[in-house]
Every structure is written in structure tokens, then in C-alpha cells.
Amino acid sequence: MKKFYLFLFIALAWTISASAQVPAFPGADGYGRYTTGGRGGEVYYVTSLEDTDTPGTLRYGVTHLSKVTILFKVSGTIQLNSSLNIRGSNITIAGQSAPGDGICLAGYPVSVSGSNVIVRYMRFRMGDWSLSADEADGADAFGGRFCNNVIIDHCSISWCTDECASFYANYNFTMQWCIISESLRMSLHSKGPHGYGAIWGGIGASYLHNLLIHHDSRTPRFGTGNLGTPSDHMTDMRNNVIYNWSGNGCYGAEGMTVNMINNYYKPGPATTTGSKNRFIGIDDATSSDGTTAIWGKFYIDGNYNSKYPDVNTDNWDGVVVNTSSLIGGNATKADVKSNTEQGETPLLHQHTAQGCFLPVLNYAGCSHRRDAIDTRLTTECRNGTATYKGESANKGGIIDKLEDLMPEDAGSDWSPWPELKSETAPVDTDADGMPDEWETQNGLDPKNPEDRNTRNEEGYTMLEVYLNSLVADITEAQYQDAEIVGKPGEPYAPVTTDVTVSWSMSSGKVGESATVSKEGIVTSSEYSLGSEINRKSTRLAYGKVITTFQPTIEYKSPEPTSALYFDFDLADGVTFRPTEISIMALSYGTSGGYFDLAWVDSNGEETILGTGMHGGSDKEDESLATTKIDLNDLVVPTSTGKCQLIVYVYKLSPTKELGLADIKIGGHLGYTAGINETEVETNNREKSIYNILGQPLSAPQKGFNIINGEKRIIR
């Protein structure tokens, strides 16, 4: 089981709060701006381009480690043997550290499921040579859902069989300065034509200064992933360059809140007549029987079409609203239009639409060492051309498979992945991520690995200062002539406590089930004991029953055998992110004895929430016996399925007791499936209607309803 620490001691509270205000790196913008990644953690070097689950490989680092900065001592293409999931949380992947031309991941999809993740200067060029037909459906070159605090910066993403870069249903997310290119239209997908760019969206999600080029559709498609209610989703799309889109182009956004500001649209040889001057086609979210519609709100302004100026004066001339039933008639543009920018947009650099065109072409993607693919793509966008095309669409820039990129004079050993040359990595004696020469020049000790986490006056660690220096010229140049807009401070999406799972401990019996504040959320619950701790007795304190526990061995540090395990299983389609923990603990027969609290998510990843705590005395005020931990400012992964709180007991004599009561886990709910989002219920047939508590209702209420056995959200 992986374990990492988010909350160590109360004395560190200031440090945690202060670091939350330090941007992920200079130039980090938008809702993911304050992601911390591996800041203050360990260093892991990738030394091999092999794709095995052994130390030294990228796969080992992203699946086994957390609170870590991943660096590279090699450059080249890693041909994946299977899908790669970045499971760890509190991770920075610093592709700019690779000596030479950098890193490319090829062959299989790469996804992010951890939280608090920074990925910079990487290439994700999947292709269709390794996938089976079954694997190709849903295969995104790079994507992620149901994550918190993620920023993707200066990555190059291409050659998918589904979407190239689908990041949606996340909290506090930014994708910036990426090149998203050449989805494969008629490859292995079971639906046939499927050359799509991206699905974007989230509860506080920014998409800034990206290039979307040569896609058959979805440039992007906005979507919620059925996380929460559609109106929760605040998506901000600015300063993107969209070139040579085909099909529908940009569409969707069912019930969402969206800003589309200062984007640059350049039709290309594949751009169809119907969408040549379209910015977006807006859809509605409907109830399961199709009788009601939810429309979102859109602020669309400052966007520019290079060939069709009729939509530049009034961007809403480039908006299509699909007809769908609203109470009182069909939706009009007035129904979905916002006249003001929406959401509390975090600080970001903003160009005009025409002002972003050249910076994006010059600096987007893995641009510190551009490969031949990105060089060709940016040249084609600049010139309004396309070099390759596939047979199915027969449109310039829209390819079906990797072989469509093969030059006529290519040899039998041709590969679509350009050679990425590796150079000798700089000497790093203490393996702290900073070369000896750089440490000496900056007054650090090349033999002291701990100085990597020394902070400068801006709040960055010295390791971050070094990594940021490798691309400082790009960061400075890309934002010339940009203005800073938005609101400084914390990210957009506050995480509310929607449900509480509680064990009163009043039964005195091991295996007691929890009380849940909302029905339909938890399917089963219990608590159990490690093999070296026993239930001792029950006592009374503060008018409550306290169940006491006694170890059989006095451990000097936390051990799994001397712990209590509080487990609950979530209903299908429900996600849970812990936001607060409360526990009453009393020591009997001693003033000693300690306990730690840990959270284990559905991936089996353990997060230490608090350490070195001890029980109070029943002679003191009740508040002194209750430990509360607010997790809102910390990044704890979201779970689906199984959840677990662990109470480790140590430094407690076998003759002494620790009493526990009122164990409460507050959490934020999300929904991944099974929720129909409706605004007004208009069906006149007789209904059976209940609220979330199972109480019968005469009519639907705002919020969560169960109508004829189906879950509905009424707004």
C-alpha cells in the first residue's frame, strides 16, 4: 500500500497554507494555478526507456510513488506495453529535465487519476500500432477525470483513436500551452469515423493558449462526465488557436457555465462549409424521458475567425443553439447568453485573439526541444496548409492511421515517431535533482540532498527554481504583450461537505455499522481491528458511551496490526472526497498513548491526515477531547467504491486504554453515472417521488429527487 503525508503536525499549518498561494511554476495560469505537485517531496530519476514495473522506469515512478518530483536522465521514446495511469498524488513530472530532445510516450493511452499533479514538457503520441480493436474504443492519447488540482503545461498530444486530450469532470484544472493534433479518423474504433480532438470541462477548469489542429470533430466538445450537476461546471477557454477543424468543430456544454474568450479560429482545407464560421453549437442536458431541458450560460466574446469576419463583430453570429424543449418554447440565444464574464477566474495572462496566434505557434507544445511533428504542424497552421490526409475523409490534414504520415520514399524501418536523441545527464552527486555545477553556482551543497527543499523568497524550493530555469526563456517570451486578468487567491471551486459518515461507537461492539446523513450514498459499512489490538470495555463520558481499546503489544510507531479500520462502500456512480475528520479520543490510565489518522482511497492509496495526536481526559472540557482536521486546503484523492479511515494506535501500554467515540467523516459528493439532470419536471403522468431521505413528496423539489425509481436533480 502506498503512503504519503499531507498533514504532519499542527506546527506545519502555516507552511501548508502559505504554499497554497505559490503558483505551480512561473507562468502557471487559471484554475490549476496553485497546484503544488511534488513540491517539498522526494526526487525520483527515470534512467531507463523500458516500460517495466521496476525502479528506474517511468511506470514505476507514477504507479508506486507519491509526494515526488520525477526527473529524467535519458531522452527518447518510451514504447508502452499497456495503458499507463498516473495514480500517485502530489507528483511533478518535469519533462524539461530530460537531457537531449526529451521524452515521448507511445503505443498506449496515458491517464491521470491522482490529484495534485503537475505535468510539463512531455509528448504523448499514442498511435494505433499497439492497440487491439477492443482497446482502441475510448483510447485517449492523454486524459483524466475525477481529479483535483492538476495542471498540464507545454505537452504535445497526438494520434488517438478516441480523443487526443480529454480532461473533464475535474476540480481546479488547467491545460495550457499544449499542441493537440492529428486524431486518427478511421482507425480501430468500433464506431468507425472517430478523429476527435478533446472533451473539456470541469468544476473550475481552464484551457489556455493551446493549439488544436487537424481534427474531424470535438475541437473541443464540452462535457460534464455526469459529475455533480451541470451548473456546477465552470469552464474557461481562452487564447486557444483552432486550425483546420472538420465536422461539428466545437459543441456540447449541456447545462454548463462556459467562457469562450479571445480564441483564434483559422479554417483549413478540411473545414466544412457548415462550420466554417461557427464558434460553438450549444446543446442542452435533458431528463431521461427527454421532456425537460437544461441550458447552460455562455460568455462568448473577443473570438476571431481569420477568414470569415462576419462573426468577429458579434461573436454570437457564430453560435448555433440547437432547438430543444424549454418551458414556454424553444431555446434562443438570449436564453443561454451571458453579457458578462462568468466565474471568479483565477489570475492568468491574456492576449487578444490575434495577439495569441504567434505566441501559441512559437511556444506551445514540448517547445524547449521541438520535434519534427510539432515543427511541421505549426508550419502548416502558419501557412494554412496540410501535408497529409487519409482516404476516408479525403480532406487535407485529416488522417486515418499512422501510415498516412509515411513519406513516399520511406524505408521499411520507417517510424512515425521521430528520433529523440539523448545526451549525457549532468552530474548530480547527491541525487537531489539539481546538477552539482548549478548547486555550486547558487550557493548550495552538492553533497547535501536536503537543500533541494530550501525555499526562496517566492516560496519555490531550490529544486523548482532549477527546473523552472531550464525553460525560463520560453516562459518570459510567451507572455509578451499579454495582460494579467482575473482574481488572485485560492482556486475557484470550494469543496463543500455534502454527507457525513459517522460511527458513534455506542454499541460497544466491533463491526458496528455507520450512520450516513444521506440515503443512497453508502451500501455497506463496518469497523474492524488489527490483530494486535482488542476491544476492552465501554465507559461513559460527556453523556456518551465510549468504547475503549487496548493493544496486546506496545508499538513505538504506527503499525497495521495495532489499528482500527473504518470501512464503507459507495453506491455505484457516487464519488466521495473527504473534507473533514472529527474523532473523540480519551486516554484511560495514562497521559501517554498516541494515534495517527490515515485515509485510504479506492485505489488503495494511503494519505496520512494527522500524526502524533493523543487522547484527552474525561476531566477536561469535551472540546479538548475532540480532534478535528479540516481537509479543504489539502489535496485528498476522490474515491469511488471502497473508502477507509485508519486509526493507528501506538506508544500505549497493554495495560492502558484508548477510548473512542463520535468518529465522523465529512465528504464532498460527486456522481459519475446514473444521475439525470433536469430543470423543470413537465411530464404529467403519475409519479412516485421521494427526497434523498426516502420521504414521499407531492411534487419534485429543488435538489436531489428519486422519481419513479430514478435519481434526478431538479434545479
From TrEMBL:
GO terms, molecular function: metal ion binding
Keyword line: Glycoprotein, Metal-binding, Signal
InterPro entries documented for this protein: Pectin_lyas_fold (IPR012334), Pectin_lyase_fold/virulence (IPR011050), Polysaccharide_Lyase_1 (IPR052063)
Comp. bias (Acidic residues): 429-439
This protein's record includes keyword Metal-binding: yes
Signal peptide segment: 1-20
Highest taxon above the source species: Bacteria
Region entry Disordered, spans: 409-455
Protein name in UniProt: Pectate lyase
Species of the source: Candidatus Caccoplasma intestinavium
